[in-house]
Amino acid sequence: MMWRSKLLLTLIIYFAGFATAVYYLAPADARTNADGIKAGGFGFGGAESVSESKSGEFGKIAGASMRKFVTFA
C-alpha cells in the first residue's frame, strides 16, 4: 500500500511542475510588449478586473477538478 501513495504523490508533484512550466512558457498577450507595457499606454487600465474574473473562474474549475481527482484517488 505504501508504494501506491508514493506513486500518487510523485505523479501529483510531476504534473504540478508540468502545469507550472506550461503556465510560465505560455505566450503573452499580443498587445503587450517585452516590458509588460500595453501598446496603447503606460498603465494596465482595466486589466485587473479581467484577470481577476478569469482567475476566479479558473479557481472554481480547478477546485472542482481537484475534488473529483481526490475522490477518485
Describe the structure.
- The chain has 73 residues and is mainly alpha-helical.
- 68% of the residues lie in helices and 0% in strands.
- It has helices at 2-25, 47-72.
- The longest helix is centred in the last third of the chain and has 26 residues, at 47-72.
- The model has no long low-confidence stretch (mean pLDDT 74).
Quick recap:
This protein has 73 residues and is an all-alpha fold.
What is the fold's blueprint, element by element?
Elements: H1 2-25, H2 47-72
* Main sheet properties: none
Mean pLDDT: 74
N-to-C SSE series? HH
* Span of the ends, CA to CA: 13 Å
Low-confidence stretches: none
User: How much of the residues is beta strand, in percent?
Assistant: under 5%
What is the tally of helical segments? 2
Choose one word for the global shape. Answer: flat
